[in-house]
Amino acid sequence: MTKARKNPHLGSRFSDFLDEEGIRESVETEAIKRVIALQIADAMKKKHISKSTLAKRMHTSRTMVDRVLDPTRESTLGSLAMAASAVGKHLRVELVG
Q1: In this structure, are residues 17 and 26 in contact, taking their beta carbons and an 8 Å threshold?
Q2: Residue 15, pLDDT score
Q3: How far apart are CA 15 and CA 94, in angstroms?
Q4: Max Cα separation, the chain?
Q5: Which CATH number applies to 14-86?
Q6: At 33, is the secondary structure helix, strand, or coil?
Q7: DSSP label at 9?
Q8: The pTM of the whole model exceeds 0.85
Q9: Is residue 45 packed enough to be buried (19+ CB in 10 Å), middle (13-18) or exposed (0-12)?
Q10: Do 53 and 65 touch, CB atoms closer than 8 A?
Q11: Based on the number of CB atoms within 10 Å of its own CB, is 40 exposed (0-12), middle (13-18) or buried (19 or more)?
Q12: Spatial distance between the Cα atoms of 56 and 53, rounded to a whole number of angstroms
């Protein structure tokens, strides 16, 4: 005799759960943004680049730099690419799968 599961998500894939909740795309987008923001912040720290200096290199405001470094805020690919370039990195976007 099989016992009914108390939690229907137990043993399922996390991506399936996110799909069921209708939040997979937003969760993945925020995760990617978090990683990029952390990588930019790490490069800034290693190269001793302040937010003000980064803003000057990007020809933008410090507020825009704060937005790029905040994974919960919207940023365009262009802004992320400019920030990456300003710390001596390149942003690469590709389709997989």
Answers
A1: no
A2: 83
A3: 20
A4: 69
A5: 1.10.260
A6: helix
A7: T
A8: no
A9: exposed
A10: no
A11: buried
A12: 5
Sequence ranges of the domains in the chain: 14-86
Cβ distance 44 to 87 under 8 Å? yes
Chain-centre distance of CA 4, in angstroms?
A: 38
Identity of the amino acid at 30: E
CA atoms within 13 A on the CB side of 34: 7
CA 60, CA 54: separation in Å to the nearest integer?
9
What's the CA dihedral at 9, 15, 21, 27 to 10 degrees? 140
Tell which residue, 22, 15, 36, has the closest CA to residue 83: 36
Q: From first to last of its 97 residues, what are the pLDDT tens digits of the chain?
A: 556 667 665 667 888 888 888 888 888 888 899 999 999 999 999 999 999 999 999 999 999 999 999 988 888 899 999 999 999 999 998 888 8
Please return the burial class of 65, using the count of CB atoms within 10 Å of its CB with bins 0-12, 13-18 and 19+.
buried
